[in-house]
Amino acid sequence: MLEIxxxxxxxxxxxxxxxxxxxxxxxILTGFSGAALAVLFQVLLAPDVALTQAIVGAAIVPxxxxxxxxxxxxxxx
Length: 77
Prior knowledge:
Layout: H1 2-19, H2 23-43, H3 47-71
């Protein structure tokens, strides 16, 4: 039952990240989806995969997306 709930959370947050207009909100939702996926891996008794997903999917990728958005914004003078 917990796996199904986590699956719905992952799918909903991924869809919301795709339709988001604000890119920083999309980065946050991407991290949320990655964190839920890491919890799902832990529930499915794959702790090594869960740790890797938590580091990469929930921490590094959203930070890189947010930094890329911040660095590529136009400066209005």
